[in-house]
Amino acid sequence: MNTNNTQVERYHKLVEYLETEFKTNITSEKIEDVSFYSYRNINRIFTALQHETIGQFIKRKRLEKAAEFLKYSDEEISDIALDIGYKDLASFSKAFKKHFKYSPSTYRNSKRIQQEITEKLIQNKEDNNAETIIFNIEILPKLKILYLQYKGSYQDSKGIEKTWNTLINYAFKKKVLSGKTVILGEILDDDEITDTIQCRYNAGIVLENYQDIRIEGFFRIKEISTQKYAKFIHVGSHESCFETYKAIYGRWMKDVKLEFEDKPTLEFYVNDEETTPKEKLITEIYIPVK
After folding, report:
1. Has residue 204 been placed in a domain?
2. Is residue 159 included in any domain, yes or no?
3. Is the CB of residue 145 less than 8 Å from the CB of residue 206?
4. Roughly what angle, to the nearest 10 degrees, separates helices 28-35 and 39-50?
């Protein structure tokens, strides 16, 4: 492995560690143990690849997670502050307001108002004979995937398409594609909470029979644990998926009535895009629930 691949691998290990442990007390010594670099040097590499320092990354992740709890749960604000690693409510509120421009309570209330408005709009459409939202509960088994991460706006279809093309070409070279290969996307961030430039999407393929391949560069392999999901079906272009998501979340509190699990949303792409008209494409949306 050359020097550049070594740096990329250590960067990936550090990111995985930070994404798992960001709520805890992360010291420079722990970071050095994980990355096998001095804190100063790994922070330089991290900043060049992530466009933010390690400290900024940890703070952002904590505050974005707090925003998710405020948006989707009824948990007390003081409990949220403690859960994401803040020792007191005052310091959390100050940091949250600086990042989101609203106090935690104002942010929660504004999101509730938005949800109520969306529900009313959807209800008005249903009064005009629009279809109600339908879903099933499914438990997916553990999956092993080869993936490549895209970072940026979820509405940048060209950027996401480029990521997919790069992944498919790599998978073809590694001889892990077949007519039965399952194609999926993993949505890691809420674009109403996370800045556009930091939103992450994993383009992935399921490795059949847990195939073992050597990976290079920014291609990664991971396991997605078995999980319970609310499954929805979207029919139409990938770009129009946003309308389906809007309907799902708009009716969540009233019709779905399930508690979100703190894990990524999955999208399974059923059709071959090259042979299927856009309006007939089927996307299975799996939202993790408890």
Report:
1. yes
2. yes
3. yes
4. 80
Coil, helix or strand for 281? coil
For residue 3, CA distances in Å to 32, 144, 234, 270 come to 18, 28, 44, 39
Give pLDDT tens digits for 198-237.
999 999 999 987 677 888 889 999 999 999 999 999 999 9
Q: Show the tokens assigned to 177.
A: 């594609």
**What's the per-residue H, E or C state across 102-119?**
CCHHHHHHHHHHHHHHHH
Is the same domain home to 153 and 277? Answer: yes
- Where a domain ends, among 89, 106, 123? 106
Find out whether 111 and 70 touch, Cβ atoms under 8 Å: yes
Q: Does some domain include residue 113?
A: no
User: Is 221 contained in some domain?
Assistant: yes
Write out pLDDT tens, residues 142-157. 999 999 999 999 989 8
Q: Whole domain around residue 156: which residue ranges? A: 136-288
Q: Count of domains in the chain?
A: 2
DSSP string across 164-178? HHHHHHHHHHTT---
Q: Is 118 exposed, middle or buried (0-12, 13-18, 19+ CB in 10 A)?
A: middle
Place of tokens 């989707």: 72
